[in-house]
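Figure 3 (text version): structure tokens given as input.
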């Protein structure tokens, strides 16, 4: 099949999509709600380039994301790439341009990111990330702010039901250090813990016959350490070293702060959270909604990243995927509404109609002017077809008629303010 026929049969490449009226309005509404929320918390928005040098964007993203990056060459033969996430470019900005600013920095962003992975529900090759980064502040106070803001942000974009699951990479790192397994077994253990595959863990322990009973018990107990803050006390009983104890101590302090924020009802803890051990340095968290098998929001502490670009700085942050948020809202009965005008205005008296429309718009009424010269009945049918509830027409500005589902009423031109108030009801 020729390239011409391919483009005819499939006008868009796989993994990208058009967003039409209702979905675009929903996206813009979510972005506006997020920006208002972030601003209230002291976060300032930045805009980042869509593509950068590939080596820059590959910094600490991990092998999987590195393999999914869209790379291409510029005219000088340099390798560029579309950004696969927003955290790396933010770290680059901080490390090269903002490192000498008063700390902490509170940064926010919204933008498309690109990954060549199998398209699936809630994620295409191009999708939208919105997130925040709190730079220059170590410790539980900053961690709690980041998680509490994630809760506030999910509520702001209209997700009724969700849960944030919090973990700490130090707990599993400490366990690995105590077990001292060969690299092959350690990798398989991490994979099995991540999937909470208890039967597979038992088989792995059979291969590591020299482990003492307390270590074996810790491995088998780990997948069950999920729930409210009470699981932190249970986790203390399987700590094998100070690294594991420090992680639990950190989470106890975090739990107290999250209670102070009043968000503990949206929080659970998972000590088997072991993703991205090379990237994160402390707490990690993900947000889930009923009916979705993937996270809406993902984040954590990453104190080593900014040092790749400039002076090292502690950092914590997260990003949510707006495409997945849309799915979560739909599953919970929140459907995007088609944007529509408040009134369709006849252009019979053309010289005066734009002035009337302009005055109405100043008072917050969304006005469309009919460009087709429709008669009153056709104008009403056109309004109904587009979901517009009212029309205004008349032979001149002294004999205007307003019509809606309840009927018609006549008004004069100098009553436009009264009409506008009526239209706004």
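Below: residues designed for each position.
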């Amino acid at each position: 099949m020729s390239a011409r026929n391919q483009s005819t049969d499939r006008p868009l490449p796989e993994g990208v999509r058009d967003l039409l009226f209702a979905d675009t309005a929903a996206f813009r509404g979510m972005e506006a709600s997020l920006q208002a929320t972030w601003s209230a918390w002291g976060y300032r928005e930045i805009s980042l380039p869509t593509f950068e040098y590939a080596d820059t964007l590959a910094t600490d993203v991990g092998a999987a994301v590195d393999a999914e990056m869209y790379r291409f060459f510029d005219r000088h033969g340099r390798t560029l790439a579309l950004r696969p996430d927003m955290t790396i470019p933010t770290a680059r900005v901080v490390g090269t341009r903002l490192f000498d600013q008063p700390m902490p920095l509170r940064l926010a962003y919204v933008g498309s990111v690109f990954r060549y992975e199998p398209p699936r529900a809630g994620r295409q090759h191009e999708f939208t990330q919105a997130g925040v980064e709190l730079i220059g502040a170590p410790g539980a106070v900053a961690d709690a702010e980041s998680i509490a803001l994630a809760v506030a942000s999910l509520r702001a974009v209209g997700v009724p039901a969700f849960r944030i699951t919090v973990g700490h990479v130090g707990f599993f790192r400490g366990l690995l250090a105590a077990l001292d397994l060969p690299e092959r077994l350690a990798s398989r253990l991490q994979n099995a813990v991540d999937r909470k595959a208890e039967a597979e863990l038992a088989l792995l322990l059979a291969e590591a016959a020299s482990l003492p009973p307390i270590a074996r018990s810790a491995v088998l107990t780990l997948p069950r350490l999920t729930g409210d803050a009470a699981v932190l006390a249970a986790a203390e009983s399987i700590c094998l070293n100070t690294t594991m104890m420090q992680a639990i101590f950190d989470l106890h302090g975090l739990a107290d702060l999250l209670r102070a924020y009043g968000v503990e009802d949206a929080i659970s803890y998972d000590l088997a959270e072991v993703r991205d051990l090379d990237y994160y340095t402390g707490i990690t968290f993900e947000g889930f909604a009923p009916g979705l098998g993937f996270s809406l929001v993902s984040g954590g502490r990453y104190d080593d990243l900014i040092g790749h670009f400039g002076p090292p700085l502690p950092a914590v942050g997260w990003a949510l995927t707006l495409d997945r948020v849309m799915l979560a809202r739909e599953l919970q009965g929140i459907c995007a509404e088609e944007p529509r005008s408040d009134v369709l205005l006849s252009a019979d008296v053309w010289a005066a109609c734009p002035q009337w429309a302009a005055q109405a718009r100043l008072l917050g009424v969304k006005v469309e002017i009919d460009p087709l010269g429709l008669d009153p009945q056709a104008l009403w049918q056109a309004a109904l077809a587009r979901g517009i509830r009212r029309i205004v027409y008349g032979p001149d500005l002294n004999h205007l008629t307003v019509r809606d589902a309840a009927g018609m009423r006549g008004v004069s031109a100098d009553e436009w303010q009264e009409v506008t108030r009526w239209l706004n009801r």
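Residues 148 and 263 are 7 Å apart (CA to CA).
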